[in-house]
Amino acid sequence: MTLDEILASLFPSSHRVERGSSGTVHGTAKVEGQGDVTVVGIVEGTPLGIDGAILLAGHVLAAVEAGGRAPIIVLVDTSSQNMARRDELMGLNEYLAHLAKSLALAAQHGHPTVSVLFGHAAAGAFIATALSSESLVALPGAEPSVMDLPSISRVTKLPLDQLKELAKSTPIFAPGVEPLFATGAVAETWSVNEPFAQRLAALLRQPVATSDQRDRIGFERKGRLLAQKVAERVAIEAAAHV
Amino acid sequence: MSNLLQPHKADWYEASARERIAGLLDPTSFAEFLGPEQRAVSPHLAQFGLTGAFDDGIVVGRGSCGDHEVFVAAQEGQFLGGAFGEVHGAKLVGLLRAARAGAGRGGPRAVLLLLDTGGVRLQEANAGELAISEIIRAIIDVRTAGVPVLALVGGRAGAFGGGGIITACCSRIVVSEHARVSVSGPEVIETNKGVEEFDARDRALVWRVCGARTRYLTGGADRYVKGSIEDFREAATSLISHAPTFELSTLKAEQQRLTERLQHFGDCRDAPEIWRKAGLTQPDRITDITDDAFLAIQRPKGADHDAR
Amino acid sequence: MEQFHVHGTTKRRAGGHRHQAITGVNVSGNLEILVERALPDNECLVEVKTAVTGFRPIWEAVVQEFFVRSSPGGLRFSINDGGARPDTVTLRLMQSVQLMENER
Predict the structure, then answer these.
(1) Which of A189, B246, C20, C37 sits a CA distance of 20 to 30 A from B215?
(2) E strands within chain B?
(3) Superfamily (CATH) of domain A3-240
(4) Cβ contact B48–A158 (<8 Å)
């Protein structure tokens, strides 16, 4: 689906979302039951670098400063973080962290944050956008990943065929919506036949969890069988020392 | 085990995760959570023909550091590159959540993260990436509850990938000369963009782009220390009481300083150009001079800040 | 990957009061040893997990010699091996006994 199709489907009554520089988009849109929502995004497969990250963070912080509790929708069709000397020299880690922090701040201030992934997102770009909102929704065409299988094969020295075979029995490393749904990263997947606007309205009507539920969800979906338990065991031992 | 007699005098870079903790905290004060005898190991490594570690490469617990009770997590950078796996990441998530729960009620005064990581453990890629996101969220929650989180970076693996992002979510960052803090590794940039863009074998270039001295001089780190564990301890104890709070005004100030950095230096191709523009003397020698000489330099305007 | 154990008997209990200790790192050329005071006084055990296959006889010889030399009665040693040489294995085993025998 193209960006315009996604926008029309998510916000059929109206939207004023415009393209900015560095592959970003920004604006407002109407969602049933919510009034105006803030929309930001990184689109058209543009890698997320220092320029895009600082722009997006600025929009998010402006929404926080404006007050209210309007939801913030983050549209994601990026690739990985921008792989360039300039970005690392300037401290890309700080720019990506700043975006992640800004989205968390918005949630703290009562703005529900929802990422809508409809293209690629990998590694640092994935962390700073899709994984930094309270909910992550995958649309048709979503291709989330940490790293592609051939690269994983190169680094781990396991033949690609063997990796593909392994991926059938565990969602712990393979790219794609299914493994990331099973491990708890993706909250919902929407299919082409569904009216996205209504799904979004329904999602925004749900009460927002007061704490990070992804490890619990990963356990329930059997994608991450240990994470929640291990975190709990550490917390219990820590509490015993107080 | 030459560090046994004087653990705090030992070199951070050479030390293991456990040795760093032993030297950082007051003697015998460390109590480990989910220690190695509990064998909380990774179930995902055997299928890759890999053996594991009894603590899955991260040591978490609490202890005292001078006047402060702290929680501490130390990554073992030599074990699978200190990378985040399911259990490894969950141990840190649990520690941070416990710090949040105990805030103001007998909990720690600060959390010290001894980061030494190449990023996500690819054999457990999705669990590692998710753990990093959960850690980021937990760090923000702890900071919001008034408990500072300090990143201490100076080991073999540096703080790469998600580790670099975690570093910049902390209240304060301490680095020593060995540290590299970055998102993409130099080899990955070279593979994707070519050797002209980044010659990954040029060590001096790597340190000029991602290394501690550049981070410190641009405001990407708050304290630069010489390499002993004691140096890190001193820096950490003094920074605990000078940590920025997590709130809108802090992030607005960060938005401003990061924007200004791009405005002033965004067209620089290498670190010496930045130093030249910033008016530092002998910009080409910054990476060569001793730690003492480096510490005598006055940081460029804007590098010293509370906006993190 | 190989997993096996080497069992021994000793005349002497390992000294000290520590219940457990850990030393080393599982990285190429090195090994990690977790030692626990978990057995009857005259028994000792080394459990090995290694990604380097085919060296079991050497491990058994090295470990048995260590048992004779150090008499670590009552101790169970669990090893994650990163391909350490025999002399490194011996050194780490002896270090781990030293840790157990030192006062805390």
Answers:
(1) B246
(2) 31-33, 58-65, 68-75, 110-115, 149-153, 172-176, 223-225
(3) 2-enoyl-CoA Hydratase; Chain A, domain 1 (3.90.226.10)
(4) yes
